[in-house]
Amino acid sequence: MNNPNSETLIFVPPILATRNNQTPMKFQKILGKLLAFGLLVACARSVSAQMMINGAGATFPYPIYSKWFDEYAKVDQSVRFNYQSIGSGGGQKQILEQTVDFGASDGPMSDDNLSKAPSKLLHIPTVAGADVVTYNLPGDPALKFDGETIAGIFLGQIKKWSDPKIGALNPGVKLPDQEIIVVHRSDGSGTTYIWTDYLSKVSPEWKQKVGTNTSVNWPTGIGGKGNEGVAGQIKQTSGALGYVELIYAVQNKMPYADVKNADGEFVKASLASITAAMATAQIPDDFRFSITNAPGKDAYPIAGATWLLVYEKQKDPAKGKKLVEFLKWAAKDGEKMAQDLQYAPLPENLQKRVLQRIDEIKM
């Protein structure tokens, strides 16, 4: 019987040496082929021995999750992660259907969705980030917006860049008499959840007509799939305006606006302003919380956390054990990598609570 953990041995028949005590050229070639074959077999066995853990969901944290999966492969070479960045709506759907080992979402699951789960689902917060207002205008002018104006644009009521409401917020900035091309997500998205949650808090009209969700009936605009798709649409469309997670604007060198917060201050999205918003959060036991329109003069108003969705009772004990080991590593060592990718790590007191929750996962 083959033992997948045994070493690969290659038998090489003894040969007579030549008069010069040299291995014949023909045999050298055969030996080389045998050794190459042995290495291939060893590699194949190593790959086949690796456990694959599958996940799907949010594009908002995809840059940091990709970093974590790459780094964790150096910590535990027996496991690999396959993460499909399909949007939070897709992540929630797939974890409910149990077609993945974990889901990912930037919006906490609703009571209705949680009730559809075959067993108890846990929300594991990982990092916090920000939605930014990004745009495509000649010269990339620095702009400011408030919630009322953003809502007006996305409701289709403010149609041109030359609208007086935008001008009043940006004195001295020459704005073109050009149509605003609104770009939004076309897929179910936690980035959209954060965006619509913010607009519902600052605009009663938005709350009544559109509301908060990972996917909504947009009053105007064109759609892009994922943060990548929205960023691409904005970059190639003159006059476009939309929302993406902060790291996508930074990596694509796209301008993004200061936004007026709950204390009346115009604040730019940054590690400091996201952290300031996170510090105000009232976090319940189930970890489902919102930090949009947070109080505090330094808080960026369109910030949000992101979660991994994991069943408390794991169906596959071996996979469950490896997943728990990864989650503990992410909550401790992975958090240290967040700032380099423009995400805010969890506060220390919340990290401790998260580690306690991970310990509740059963095999």
List keywords for this structure.
2 domains, D-Maltodextrin-Binding Protein, domain 2, 363 residues, alpha/beta
Report on this structure.
With 363 residues, the chain is an alpha/beta fold. It folds into two domains: 132 residues, 3-Layer(aba) Sandwich (D-Maltodextrin-Binding Protein, domain 2), CATH 3.40.190; 149 residues, D-Maltodextrin-Binding Protein, domain 2 (3-Layer(aba) Sandwich), CATH 3.40.190. 38% of the residues lie in helices and 18% in strands. The chain contains 13 helices and twelve strands. Strand 1, helix 2 and strand 2 form a beta-alpha-beta unit. Helix 12 runs antiparallel to helix 13. It is elongated and about 60 Å long. The N terminus is likely disordered.
Radius of gyration: 26 Å
Work out the strand percent: 15-25%
**Whole-number total of structural domains:** 2
Characterize the main sheet: 9 strands, mixed
- What is the number of E strands? 12
**Class of the largest domain, according to the CATH hierarchy?**
Alpha Beta
* Beginning-to-end CA distance, first to last residue: 30 Å
CATH superfamily of the largest domain: Periplasmic binding protein-like II
Category by helix and strand content: alpha/beta
Helical coverage, percent range: 25-40%
